[in-house]
Specification:
Blueprint: H1 7-30, H2 37-50, E1 54-55, E2 68-71, E3 74-76, E4 90-99, E5 102-111, H3 117-136, H4 143-156, E6 160-161, E7 167-169, E8 176-180, E9 201-204, E10 207-209, E11 215-217, E12 224-226, E13 232-234, E14 237-242, E15 245-248
Antiparallel strand pairs: 1-4, 2-4, 3-12, 4-5, 6-10, 7-8, 7-9, 9-14, 10-13, 11-12, 14-15
């Protein structure tokens, strides 16, 4: 069941979302050659805690860190550690915050220096697919509308859309109903094509690959990588459906 939020509840989620947005702005400055993923994680956690919030991912289902930090062929759920970011790497950072028992979640992919034209186009297309999805969201939109919008744009640019990872509802829990697909076809794993209503809060998060869309999980049981080890990118915002359309809640 989708739990619809009141205006007051959406405002509470936005307060958590502003902290997430601020954290991602920090990430854009931190990602550079020579920094470790643990350094990035530590500084983001310090910011979240300084704002009176709690890192939403830390301890969730046993995840050990504040951020999910994934480099190059790593798609999502990468564990921060001693890995040093190198010039030309692209780094996806997913951040969640809990404030006053309300959650918000967003992600960005940042290049360390010049990753090359193909990687830059991958990042542009992934970000644009998120923007295009947000632009069509309003009460009455179907989940399939979101999925088709992302998939058609991404595939028209020659990239792949991951099928086994999707967006989600969010609020009192980090992951709530509904599942929010980045694709829509006969292979869809989404249980139904719901019509979204005013008060729905969802995290839309296209995950795009330069090669095949198949992924696998590494032996750490967390890090998801492209099966063909092609580059990938990940962008995400938490948004709310309101009487007038859509509001992005994870802006700084």
């Amino acid at each position: 069941m989708i739990r619809l939020k009141t205006r007051r509840e959406i405002d509470a989620i936005r307060k958590a979302g502003r902290i997430v947005g601020e954290a991602l702005k920090l990430v854009e400055n931190l990602v550079q050659s020579g920094v470790t993923t643990a350094d990035i994680d530590r500084q983001v956690e310090e910011l979240i805690c300084a704002r009176g919030a709690r890192p939403a991912f830390k301890g969730h289902r046993g995840f050990p860190n504040c951020c999910c930090i994934s480099v190059n062929e790593q798609l999502v759920h990468g564990i921060p550690g001693p890995r040093v970011v190198k010039a030309g790497d692209i780094v996806s950072v997913d951040v969640g915050a809990e404030l006053d028992k309300w959650f918000s979640d967003a992600a960005v992919t940042v290049a360390a220096g010049d990753p090359g034209e193909d990687a830059k186009r991958l990042m542009r297309v992934t970000k644009a697919s998120l923007d295009k999805a947000i632009a069509i969201v309003k009460p009455g939109v179907r989940l399939s509308d979101i999925g088709r919008t992302i998939q058609q744009y991404v595939e028209s640019n020659g990239f792949g859309v991951v099928r086994t990872m999707v967006g989600h509802g969010i609020g009192r829990q980090l992951w709530e109903e509904p599942q929010v697909p980045n694709f829509w076809d006969e292979d869809s794993h989404v249980p139904d094509d719901r019509i979204l209503q005013t008060g729905t809060v969802i995290a839309i998060e296209p995950m795009v690959t330069m090669g095949d869309y198949e992924v696998e999980t590494l032996s750490d049981h967390w890090t998801v990588v492209t099966r063909d080890r092609s580059l990938c990118a990940h962008y995400e915002h938490t948004v709310a459906l309101t009487e007038t359309g859509v509001e992005v809640l994870t802006l700084p």
